[in-house]
Amino acid sequence: MDALQQLVFFMCICFKATQTESSWTVDVPSSVEGLLGSCVVIPCSYNYPDIAAHTFTGIWRIDDQVIYHPTESNTMEKYRGRTKLLGDLSKKNCSLMIENLQQSDGGPFFFRIELEGPNKFSYSNNKVSISMIGEPNPTDFFVQEEVKEGQTVSAFCSVSHSCPTNPPDFHWSHSGEQHFQTQNLQNGQWKATSTLTFHSDRTDNNKPLRCRVTYHGGKQREPSKTIKVKYAPVNVKVEYQSDVNEGETAHLKCSSDANPVSSYEWHSESGALLNKGQTYTMSNVSRNSEAVYCTAVNEEGRVKSSTVQLNVLYAPDIETYSKCSSYNGIVKCDCIVQSRPPSTVHFVLGDRVLPSSKVEKNGSVTTGTLQTDFGSFKFVHCLANNTLGNSNLTLFLPVNDNMQNIFIASGAGVIFLIILIATGVGVVRKCRGRSGETPTSDLGTMKAERPVELPRYAPTKRKEDRKDMSCSDIYANDHLYGNTDCDESIYNNV
Ligand SMILES: *[C@@H]1O[C@H](CO)[C@@H](O)[C@H](O)[C@H]1NC(C)=O
Ligand SMILES: *[C@@H]1O[C@H](CO)[C@@H](O)[C@H](O)[C@H]1NC(C)=O
Ligand SMILES: *[C@@H]1O[C@H](CO)[C@@H](O)[C@H](O)[C@H]1NC(C)=O
Ligand SMILES: *[C@@H]1O[C@H](CO)[C@@H](O)[C@H](O)[C@H]1NC(C)=O
Ligand SMILES: *[C@@H]1O[C@H](CO)[C@@H](O)[C@H](O)[C@H]1NC(C)=O
């Protein structure tokens, strides 16, 4: 062939090719995957020679049988009601949908177009078969599996399918913002993706996130992934037995909810580090033991518990500044007691046990007040008790000015007393072995002294002390009030 011939030949081919472009052609995939029971849409576009067409009749066939015809009665029974031409034939779109796919719907199928007059064509050289799958293809599921609390989590769930008219339905096990996206793949396959966005919460930790996909026709898939949410400790609390006796040991345990698990530190309220570890043992607790708190620590944060103040129980301690006072001629005695639990406060005046006329409680302080006719008594005993023990203290009654004067004036009496002692009259013997307390000498100062034994409660072996005390009282009283009754009168019948 010479060059000219070659040129003509190629021009011919080119012309033919351009001519075939606008000739009887169809574009269909040779095979489309379809899920049994679901639907399939066979994508199809066709072409026909350059003729002015106004009426279009699109038909789909398998061999010489019609699986789709616009006049339904022309469709073979097996496909009646299940096939639908989705494409707009005037726009050269011949896409076909087959519903409720059955195993025997494999094809192969081809398209036929009938335009006006003799312009009809069966594209039987381009057949489409449907490869049936019994179960949906695996689902793609993606989510960050480890997040921090509050972080935004995006989860993606996507599946391929062949039914764009009724794409699969997605249902998430977690609330959040959802987005649906669909993408056309090749050969009649579509990809449907659901995106879920939410803010992670600690309650999501270790919980599976599920994406339930329901395909048209009813088949389901439910992939899931467990999310780990890291969060700073919460519910940091100290477990302990609140009531503990002074001097005993208290065991404290800290707990918290955290991911990853917490480590613990113990501090005193003033900030000193006491211990590291989940438990803390406080030995020899005292009423002054400082409040403590624990701190739960993990990589996400440090969180303190509330402060724990043990309720340390201890027997009463009567404050030495407890006293009797006189105001406007009214005498009252305040007995101030430190104890936990609060104490019962009684007074012993002579042979009488008197309840407090007034009791005030404020925390560990109980104040018992006695206001009564104190008569000629020089002192009153305050007695405090609680479940852990008891305590007592002698409170001296105030000496009024009048009496003081008499006392000074009767200096002779004192001298007489000294003489009596000096001359060794039986009284001296009686007064021997005194414990050194001399209520007489403190009478005017109202100072409190301890210990003092009280008649009702005192053991007998210390009776001698009492006699002594009463003796000295008697001598004092002798001059002031002429009370000559010795110890017996005060203590005998108690
Ligand atoms: C043909 O019609 C189908 C169904 O309506 C549609 O999904 C597809 O996009 C159309 N194809 C083209 C090439 O326009
Ligand atoms: C317990 O504590 C008190 C003071 O709070 C102290 O006097 C005492 O010795 C302590 N006892 C022991 C066994 O540590
Ligand atoms: C209780 O005692 C505290 C101090 O220990 C004091 O601040 C408070 O005023 C007292 N309350 C009453 C009602 O006396
Ligand atoms: C304190 O002593 C009184 C009298 O002895 C008694 O009735 C009371 O139950 C005691 N209280 C406690 C808390 O022990
Ligand atoms: C008073 O207290 C002393 C110790 O302080 C004790 O020995 C005595 O028994 C107490 N008396 C009474 C009546 O409780």
Automatic annotation (TrEMBL):
Membrane topology: Single-pass membrane protein
Signal peptide segment: 1-22
Pfam families, A to Z: C2-set_2, Ig_2, V-set
Keywords of this entry: Disulfide bond, Membrane, Signal, Transmembrane, Transmembrane helix
Residues covered by the Ig-like domain: 136-228, 233-309
Keyword DNA-binding listed: no
Principal cellular location given in the protein's record: membrane
Compartments where found: Membrane
Gene Ontology cellular component terms for the protein in this record: membrane
Membrane-crossing segments per the record: 406-428
Protein name per its UniProtKB record: Si:dkey-238d18.5
Organism encoding this protein: Maylandia zebra (zebra mbuna)
